Structures are given as structure tokens and as C-alpha cells.
């Protein structure tokens, strides 16, 4: 069982594994740093400890971002989306967010967009 | 079967439903607009049509964002994350991204953060 506020738990729509995706954004620059997964307890810990906490699908355990690496995430705000099935966590990220050493997990990993010119600005 | 470039398909790590989450961000302001889901074909269409295309888990069909509402998303870039299990789509969003009429799906949906003061800037 989780200590998550029942009023929040009632609004969550979880996947079959009991998880919601958590989009993690640097609070001031707007960079999307990474995507993690949270169950009720990880969300509860994120909201109450000030440190972003996830559920590791590969290791099947909770992890506090930066606990091993030192690249901690200090929680600034947490928002739920309109459907209750995604959270957006604004953090202050120390060091690189990615375990590969890049600032974000998306840096240098562009896929080729071969579409016609987009709408001009 | 999908027409997705096999070199890209090889890098994708899909969930048991064959999907990856797609984080959608306004290309210039950095706002996180919404989170959608893509299978190989939705990603292929997003990369080649210039319009963000998702797989609807509730309706079990492809949808081109804005096709009904007019609130279209023009694709500027698509990036894969370090693990190959999330994509980040930078778009130019016309109008509100959320079906509720708010600019993003996260507007006005803050959860209470009750943690001690975060690290000062």
C-alpha cells in the first residue's frame, strides 16, 4: 500500500503495471531531461521528499534519482495531465540527467525528419 | 507491418502493447504540451508527413493531432532517448494542445508538493 493522498490516487489512471510516465523537465530552461515511471508510492515520495523518485521497471525497485551518481533532481513542481495518466515534474537537475553523461537523455539522438517544409513561423 | 526505417525500428524498445511514449514539446518556448503514444507506423508517419501522429489506446486507431479540432502539430524534430524507449517530438502547436481547451494538458493541474525547501538556486 502507498501513503499517497487518496484524493490524488483517485485521479490517477495507471497502466496495467500500475505505473504512469513521468516527464521530467528542467524548471527554468524548459529542457526535457528524461522520462521515468512512477507508481503511487514513488509519486508520494516525490511530492513529500523533494527528491524525484521513480519505479525502475528493469530492476523492480524504487530509485531516488542521483542517489548513486550524485546527479540529483530537486523537485520544484508536479502536475498531472487532463486524463490523469501522465505527470510532469519540474526539477532543478544537478549535473547530467542521463546515465550516459549527456545533459538530457535525448541529446544527440535526432531521428531524420523527411517531411515537407513545416508551416512557416 | 510498418514502413518505418528498419535502422530506426531496431533501436526502438516498445512496451508490451508495441508502443513508446511520445513527449510533445513546443519547439520555441519549451512548454511540454502533452504525452501521446506511438507504434512503429505512427512514428513513421510523424517522421515523413510533418504532422504529429499517434496511436490512440482508447480508440485503437491512428490519429493525426488536429485533424478534427484544427489544433495541428507541425513537426520540427524528433529525438529518441538513450534507451530507445521514449521519443521527444518538438512541434509548432496551433491553438491549444489539450482537448479541454488549455494550452497544455498540464495547465492548472498542480499537485501539492509538501517537501522541505528545495536546494536554493
Note down, in words, how this protein is organized:
Two copies of one chain form a homodimer. Chain A has two helices and seven strands; from the N terminus they run H-E-E-H-E-E-E-E-E. With 121 residues, chain A is mostly beta strands. In chain A, the strands form two sheets. A four-stranded mixed beta sheet of chain A has the order 2-1-6-5, with helices on one face. The first copy, chain A, has a two-stranded antiparallel ribbon with strand order 3-4. In chain A, a hairpin with a 5-residue loop joins strand 1 and strand 2. The longest helix of chain A is centred in the middle third of the chain and has 10 residues, at 40-49. The radius of gyration of chain A is 16 Å and the shape is globular. In chain A, 36% of the residues are buried. The mean pLDDT of chain A is 94. The interface between A and B is large, with 53 and 52 residues. Strand 7 of chain A pairs antiparallel with strand 5 of chain B, so a sheet runs across the interface.
Flag low-confidence runs of chain A: none
Helix content of chain A: 10-25%
Q: Count of helices of chain A?
A: 2
Distance between the termini of chain A: 49 Å
Quaternary class: homodimer
Give the largest interface pair and sizes.
Answer: A-B, 53 and 52 residues
Number of strands of chain A: 7
Spatial strand arrangement across the major sheet of chain A: 2-1-6-5
Rg of chain A, alpha carbons: 16 Å
Structural class of chain A: mainly beta
- The shape of chain A, in one word, is globular
Q: What characterizes the major β-sheet of chain A?
A: 4 strands, mixed
- Average pLDDT confidence of chain A is 94
Strand content of chain A: 25-35%
User: Secondary-structure element order of chain A, as H and E?
Assistant: HEEHEEEEE
